[in-house]
Write a structure and sequence with these properties.
about 130 residues; eight-stranded mixed beta sheet; 3 helices; 8 strands; binds zinc ion
Length: about 130
């Protein structure tokens, strides 16, 4: 079941500079930074009240974040919805003919399990589902 918004993912070219900007603009808190090799990104997690923002920097030119920035520039990359069972969501969506990027849940930041739907499934919005351990 989908429980609500987990975070907003924002693609950035310079993680340190983007962090400074966001923290100054919002008065938020930097929780931590982490490299997620499976997704080819370095992530900085910021909280602003209940809102969680993940700033994403590409680790290489082949990273999806590098391709996104090359095509569209920096900005909102995806919305992440919290689920209590990512694999069952993916199975349900596949059965309902939604186009998926991941048919199998995979490791995300902070020891979560994640799965992405294709943006063509939801009117141009890339949606991630996140399951906390
Ligand atoms: Zn995310």
């Amino acid at each position: 079941m989908i429980r609500g918004l987990h975070h907003i993912g924002i693609a950035v070219a310079d993680l340190e500079e983007a962090c400074d900007r966001w923290l100054t603009a919002t008065g938020g808190t930097l929780l931590h930074t982490e490299i997620v090799e499976e997704q080819g990104v370095e992530v900085a997690v910021i909280t602003v009240g209940d809102l969680r923002i993940e700033l994403l920097r590409a680790l290489s030119e082949s990273s999806p974040i590098a391709k996104f920035i090359a095509a569209r520039g920096e900005g909102i990359h995806h919305l992440a919805l919290e689920s209590d069972g990512v694999q069952s969501e993916l199975d349900r969506l596949k059965a309902a003919s939604f186009r998926l990027i991941d048919e199998t849940a995979r490791p995300g930041a902070e020891e979560t399990r994640v799965g992405f739907m294709h943006p063509r499934s939801l009117r141009g919005v890339l949606v991630e589902m996140v399951e906390r351990r």
